[in-house]
Amino acid sequence: MLAAPRGSIVELSWQTATETNNYGFDIEQKSNADWAKVGFVEGHGTTNAPQSYSYADNSASGKVSYRLKQIDRDGKFEYSKEVEATIATSPTVFALSQNYPNPFNPTTNISFTVPATGRAKLKIFNILGLEVATLFDGEAQTGIFYQVQFNGAGVASGMYFSRLEYNGKAQMTKMTLLK
């Protein structure tokens, strides 16, 4: 069995070479120390042909484990090996990351997130506090990791500040441009 994260969904897929009296598969997910059924996929009974199966789990978050419980029509069953998948959690914090690379020449990347959808502004200031550039001025969505680029080709070497404003709050980082 293969477990592949696709955004907020884990896509499970598996194959059988042959099947004898196969009723179907319970898909089980491990929560804390307990296994719980999260779905069922019907089997193909008895067949000598290879079969492919899949199941999409949209209830996963963080690191999860899965196993299949293959059930025969007479009630007998056996478990597959466990597989794991990790669903990246969406950012829900107000954060301005340090630019990368730093020092830079002439471009650098700046990332930020916001806790809820709202208006955000990301600006660059020089050491005197004068605005040099506006990199973002608009509605930022929660759960999105924004990355913008600052090109310092038209400004002098020196110290600069990136400032993120959102909902009456601000965060600032220091950057160094070396030409």
General description of the model:
Helix content is 0%, strand content 66%. The chain contains no helices and 15 strands. The strands form 4 sheets. Strands 3, 4, 6, 7 and 8 form a 5-stranded antiparallel beta sheet that branches. A 4-stranded antiparallel beta sheet has the order 12-11-14-15, with no helix packed on it. A hairpin with a 4-residue loop joins strand 11 and strand 12. The radius of gyration is 25 Å and the shape is elongated. The termini are far apart. The model has no long low-confidence stretch (mean pLDDT 92).
Write a brief caption for the model.
This protein is mainly beta and 179 residues long. 0% of the residues lie in helices and 66% in strands.
Show the helix and strand layout:
Elements: E1 2-6, E2 9-16, E3 19-31, E4 34-47, E5 51-57, E6 62-72, E7 77-79, E8 83-87, E9 95-96, E10 107-113, E11 118-126, E12 131-140, E13 146-151, E14 158-166, E15 169-177
Antiparallel strand pairs: 1-2, 2-5, 3-4, 3-6, 6-7, 6-8, 9-10, 10-13, 11-12, 11-14, 14-15
